[in-house]
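F.,

This is the one I mentioned.
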C-alpha cells in the first residue's frame, strides 16, 4: 500500500510538472508574439520620428534663410518645454561632461 501511494504521488508530481511545462510553453509563445508586436511598434515609432525629424529640418532656416544641416545640428527639447536647434558638437561635449559627473558621483 505504501509503495502504491508513493507511485501515485510520483505520478501526480510528474503530471503536474508536465502541465507546468505545457503552460510555460504557451506563455513563452505568447511572450514571443508580444515581443514581436512591440518590436514592430518600436520600428514604426522610430520611422515616424525620423520622418518628423526630416520634416522639421526641411522647414527650418537660419538667420540668412539657409536650411539647417541635420548632420550638423540636433533638435533639443528642454524640460521646460522649449525646443532648440543646437550643434551636435555641443550635445556631444555636454554628454561627455554629464558622464564625467556621473562617474565622479559613483566613486
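My design for it:
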Amino acid at each position: 500500500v505504501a509503495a502504491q501511494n508513493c507511485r501515485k504521488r510520483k505520478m501526480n508530481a510528474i503530471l503536474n510538472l508536465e502541465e507546468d511545462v505545457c503552460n510555460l510553453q504557451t506563455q513563452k509563445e505568447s511572450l514571443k508574439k508580444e515581443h514581436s508586436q512591440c518590436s514592430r511598434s518600436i520600428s514604426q515609432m522610430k520611422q515616424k520620428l525620423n520622418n518628423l525629424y526630416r520634416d522639421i529640418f526641411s522647414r527650418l532656416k537660419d538667420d540668412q534663410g539657409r536650411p539647417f544641416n541635420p548632420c550638423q545640428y540636433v533638435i533639443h527639447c528642454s524640460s521646460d518645454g522649449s525646443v532648440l536647434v543646437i550643434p551636435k558638437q555641443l550635445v556631444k561635449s555636454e554628454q561627455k561632461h554629464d558622464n564625467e559627473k556621473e562617474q565622479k558621483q559613483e566613486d
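Residues 1-59 form one domain.

Talk soon.
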